[in-house]
Design goal:
Helices cover 29% and strands 18% of the residues. By secondary structure, it is of the alpha+beta class. The N terminus is likely disordered.
Length: 434
């Protein structure tokens, strides 16, 4: 028996997942046939066992009319919004959007995404953050948090945006936009459910330290709907390295179905393509800022000054990255957000090839954890997950290069002016918690 078949049988035997009210997975024949063209052994083993790998894929073709107006055709492979996967860092995208939206709703001209912020503590486990030496000003800001969340998927940046927006506003806003099956319940630090309902006092300050605006501590009294149970695996490791012989309970963890994640990205890249209520309240300057840092590379960025060797160009571009491919193709930019945790890898991308006039969207998630133990840091990210995502990305990219379009798209809207790394004496940032 070949090793990949052995891996599949082992993973199938060890995976235990319980969910109530599960729906029917959706698969389109067109995408199924397109994926069959790639005969990579790892790729085909995953494609042939979508339940084992909890695989879901959404491929979105974009076609323009003579006025350059885009239309979208979505193709699905094993997509089921009731089939839980851990969204990990993908939730940093909605938190960035909600943070910008909240700033705009505040309507305080002196308080912008670039304004210095400080976080205090007012409840159990909360921590202060008054300085950020990786920023140009030496202070945190919403803009700097978004940079860090997008460029290398920094966890603290997400937690601080969570604290700024607040748990109640996060979930009410997403549900009001039609993302009814989503929930964001926690920071990326060890806290109880009660502690995550409480968020810190926040203040915006001038560069001389004087106060511009103070936001008090907040508490979310709204209940969550946890009726759909989600348990995964045969065991898990606790914080003190003890093995618990029962499935890991994700029922009260963050949830962001792949369709919702794809639609959030589409609402950012093409706001006119989604209903008004689904759009985020962003300014033209916000969109340009988001486009830049969704697609800019860590090595192009001055603040933070990331180690370009450790955080290479394709570091958070799963559809163009595997162990051999760290550089991006010439004149290709990927506007995306990824997440990886608990054996899950997820990516939603808008891909633009300016040279060949190609654009499309691709979103996917899969699970690679053959021993069935959660929290043991023994996942097949490098040997199965990332090679699969790369092969999937290349399958769609090569098809798009050959696909005939009636009208050549004008992609100038997505051409960004990226930073150039300044050679100075500041140390580079390594080993980010992500």
């Amino acid at each position: 028996m070949d090793p990949f078949t052995t891996f599949v049988k082992t993973l199938s035997a060890l995976c235990l997942f319980v969910t109530t009210g599960a729906g029917q997975a959706r698969t389109d024949d067109f995408l199924k046939k397109l994926l069959a063209r790639n005969q990579s052994p790892i790729f085909q083993e995953v494609i042939r066992h979508p339940e084992t790998y909890r695989l879901q894929i959404i491929y979105t073709q974009i076609n323009r009319d003579k006025n350059n107006t885009p239309s979208f055709t979505h193709y699905y492979f094993h997509v089921d919004s009731t089939d839980y996967f851990n969204p990990a860092s993908t939730v940093k995208l909605p938190l960035a959007l909600l943070s910008l939206e909240k700033l705009n709703r505040m309507q305080k001209p002196d308080v912008t995404k670039f304004t210095a912020m400080q976080f205090d503590s007012a409840y159990s486990k909360q921590t202060k953050e008054w300085r950020d030496e990786t920023s140009e000003t030496g202070y945190p800001s919403i803009a700097h948090f978004i940079k860090k969340a997008f460029l290398v998927s920094d966890n603290d940046a997400y937690s601080r945006m969570y604290e700024f927006v607040g748990q109640q506003e996060i979930n009410r806003s997403l549900h009001a936009k039609g993302y009814l099956d989503t929930r964001i319940t926690h920071r990326f630090v060890r806290m109880s459910a009660d502690e995550n309902r409480h968020t810190n006092p926040v203040r915006f300050i001038r560069q001389d330290g004087t106060l511009l605006y103070a936001q008090p501590a907040a508490y979310n009294p709204d209940p969550f709907d946890f009726r759909r149970v989600a348990r995964l695996g045969k065991g898990y490791m606790t914080g003190n390295d003890s093995l618990v012989h029962e499935p890991f309970n994700f029922t009260e963890r963050n949830k962001l179905p792949l369709e919702a994640f794809q639609q959030m990205l589409q609402s950012v890249m093409f706001p006119e393509s989604v209903p008004d209520r689904q759009r985020f309240n962003l300014t033209p300057a916000d969109y340009r800022f988001l486009y830049q840092y969704l697609s800019q590379y860590p090595g192009e960025t001055n603040y933070p000054k990331y180690d370009a060797k450790q955080y290479y160009d394709a570091y958070v571009k799963f559809f163009f990255m595997d162990s051999l491919h760290h550089q991006m193709p010439d004149r290709v930019r990927v506007f995306n957000k990824v997440g990886w945790a608990y054996g899950f890898l997820t990516d939603a991308s808008y891909v633009v090839d300016f040279k060949n006039k190609v654009e499309y969207m691709l979103a996917a998630t899969l699970y690679v954890n053959s021993d069935g133990i959660l929290n043991d840091d023994k996942y097949e990210f490098d040997t199965v997950g990332q090679p699969f995502m790369y092969q999937l990305g290349q399958t769609i990219y090569q098809y798009e290069l050959s696909r005939k379009r009636r009208y050549v798209p004008d992609l100038s809207r997505f051409r960004m002016t990226y930073e150039k790394r300044i050679n100075d004496n500041r140390p580079v940032v390594r080993d980010v918690d992500n």
